[in-house]
């Protein structure tokens, strides 16, 4: 894990498979490094795939309250992309931080592994 503070913006040209078109903010220099790691590890950025109001995309608030960015991201393996139901930032959690909580909703369909018994009939 690493704290990249990557601002992805909404332009996903060249990275359509790994991010959606609903990013927030203006890209910064960490964007390319972060996306390189995501593509190398087949990670999809969930927060950019869902259309929300900006207040539900903002994951960081400056101390003066005027600057807000989407710098925290939920990444999931590309194989599980269809399991993503929603990703949004939520305010109101009293966590003593200038970051907002990033909530990720997943719908998992897990198969029950059948037990095979070795019956011996005489």
TrEMBL record:
Annotated SUPFAM superfamilies: DNase I-like (SSF56219)
Lineage top rank: taxon: Eukaryota
InterPro entries on file: Endo/exonu/phosph_ase_sf (IPR036691)
Gene3D superfamilies for the chain: Endonuclease/exonuclease/phosphatase
Name of protein: Craniofacial development protein 2
Origin species: Elysia marginata
């Amino acid at each position: 894990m690493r704290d990249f503070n990557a601002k992805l913006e909404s332009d996903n040209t060249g990275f359509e498979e790994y991010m959606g078109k609903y990013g927030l903010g203006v890209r910064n220099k960490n964007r390319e490094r972060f996306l390189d790691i995501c593509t190398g590890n087949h990670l999809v950025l969930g927060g950019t795939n869902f259309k929300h109001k900006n207040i539900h995309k903002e994951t960081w608030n400056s101390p003066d309250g005027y600057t807000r960015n989407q710098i925290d991201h939920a990444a999931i393996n590309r194989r599980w992309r269809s399991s993503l139901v929603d990703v949004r930032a939520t305010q109101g959690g009293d966590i003593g931080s200038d970051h907002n909580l990033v909530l990720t909703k997943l719908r998992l369909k897990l198969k029950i592994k059948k037990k095979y018994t070795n019956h011996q009939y005489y």
